[in-house]
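Quick one, probably user error.
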């Protein structure tokens, strides 16, 4: 017989995002009737199918999406993902995450996301360029500097954004179109500091969390043992910067496996080995571990910086870290959140921890609109201030919710998490704007 306990947990990101939202909603008392429908559903969801000539002269049809979740606080903002398994549901969930992330970061954007079903590992540069151009042409004016502004995400990069810009610019001649996309190469109007922004933001957020004494027994990064899952743009930067801030990197992994060293890994040596061999596995002086072993390793801070739903009901109880910093989007499931909370493991949620990318994207957008180029110091100072402000807002909200729960005699075990506090903050900010704008009249 099937019992509730035997129902497998959903790893569908849209289901996960909805469960997180519903949990946060239970902390909000006075939401206007009917608003939930408006808050959870995307404003617009576009499907495009386009055909591209392949290198062997055959033609192939690709399927892509662009979802605008909400634009009450400003134009949509969110990456474009190229992946064989990307679905409309996944893109919708990620677009909603962007709505909450931009609200927490307090940048004047809404949430959006895009994706094309394709396997970049099996496509040539010329094929990727043609796919990107056709995708942008199909999206037409649904993207634009004041409507919806894409950026890189999984398996898209600066070059992809350069193609997005160039295609849009050809379709809209005679005007400054640089602000249509962020994450561009520097020469095309990209911002200094954008490439490192997400990893650097995660560092600033962690430092502020520790300064605020939100993690018992861990007041700063000096000697803190850190494990990083995923060594792409975000994970590799996080590894370098946490190491630079005094932490000891005890384990790292990529899609091919992981390596560990109790006395600490040297980030530059690991990255050099990965560049040469395409994998971290086999780096000199290290012990090979699996990704599951990395998640359960002896460390103080675990930084998932790869894929969704990595920390789940089946492995959360094995985690020994005191703090999880969600550098990836959606790396933990709601069931995992409950287990981590029961084990007193603090989790800094994705919509705060990885918001550095969208904060510096905002700076890139502003520089593009004003035809400006700022220096690295200006960008990093702005980023640090915003990350500190976001972490403070979330801790303060969590404390306020805790007080409220104690006052109302709410059931034990129903303490607010930092994720609840972050979502409550984001939802409240969006609702305030929506009600001020009276958007339906
Ligand atoms: P990326 O493509 O540069 O890197 C992904 C990394 O994950 C690669 O090193 C890959 O080897 C590794 N990986 C893949 N499968 C793995 C597995 N099973 N176990 C361990 N490692 C695995 O991507 P990225 O830009 O670094 O993004 C990583 C995550 O951060 C994604 O969830 C993305 O949505 C999120 N994110 C990125 C940014 C940004 O600015 N790039 C901003 C916010 C959030």
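Nope, works fine. Designed sequence:
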């Amino acid at each position: 017989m099937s019992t509730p306990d035997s129902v497998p947990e959903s790893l569908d990101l849209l289901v996960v995002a909805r469960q997180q939202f519903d949990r946060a909603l239970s902390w909000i008392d006075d939401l206007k009737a009917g608003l939930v429908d408006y808050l959870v559903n995307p404003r617009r969801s576009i499907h495009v199918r386009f055909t591209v000539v392949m290198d062997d002269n055959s033609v192939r049809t690709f399927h892509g999406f662009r979802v605008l979740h909400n634009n009450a606080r400003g134009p949509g903002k969110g990456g474009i993902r190229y992946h064989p398994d990307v679905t409309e549901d996944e893109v919708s969930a990620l677009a909603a995450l962007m709505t909450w992330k931009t609200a927490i970061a307090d940048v004047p954007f809404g949430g959006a996301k895009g994706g094309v079903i394709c396997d970049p590992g099996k496509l040539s540069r010329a094929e990727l360029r043609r796919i990107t151009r056709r995708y942008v042409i199909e999206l037409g004016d649904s993207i634009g500097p004041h409507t919806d502004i894409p950026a890189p995400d999984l398996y898209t990069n600066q070059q992809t954004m350069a193609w997005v810009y160039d295609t849009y610019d050809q379709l809209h001649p005679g005007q400054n179109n640089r602000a249509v996309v962020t994450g561009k190469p520097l020469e095309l109007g990209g911002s200094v500091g954008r490439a490192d922004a997400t990893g650097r933001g995660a560092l600033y957020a962690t430092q502020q969390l520790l300064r605020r004494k939100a993690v018992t027994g861990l007041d700063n990064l000096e000697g803190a043992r850190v494990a990083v899952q995923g060594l792409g743009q975000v994970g590799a930067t996080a590894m370098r910067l946490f190491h630079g801030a005094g932490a000891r990197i005890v384990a790292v992994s990529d899609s091919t496996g992981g390596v560990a060293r109790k006395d600490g890994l040297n980030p530059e040596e690991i990255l050099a080995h990965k560049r040469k061999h395409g994998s971290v596995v086999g780096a000199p002086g290290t012990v090979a571990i699996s990704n599951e072993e990395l998640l359960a390793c002896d460390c103080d801070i675990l930084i998932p910086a790869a894929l969704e739903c990595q920390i789940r009901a089946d492995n959360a109880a094995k985690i020994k870290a005191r703090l999880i910093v969600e550098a990836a989007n959606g790396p933990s499931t709601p069931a995992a959140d409950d287990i981590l909370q029961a084990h007193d493991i603090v989790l800094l949620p994705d919509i705060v921890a990885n918001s550095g990318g969208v904060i510096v994207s905002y700076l890139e957008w502003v520089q593009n609109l004003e035809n400006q180029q700022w220096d690295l110091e200006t960008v990093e100072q702005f980023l640090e201030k915003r990350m500190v402000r976001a972490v403070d807002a979330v801790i303060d909200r969590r404390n306020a919710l805790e007080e409220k729960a104690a006052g109302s005699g709410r059931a034990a075990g129903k303490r607010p998490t930092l994720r609840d506090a972050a979502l409550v903050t984001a939802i409240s900010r969006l609702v305030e704007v929506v009600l001020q704008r009276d958007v339906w009249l």
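The CA atoms of residues 35 and 431 lie 8 Å apart.
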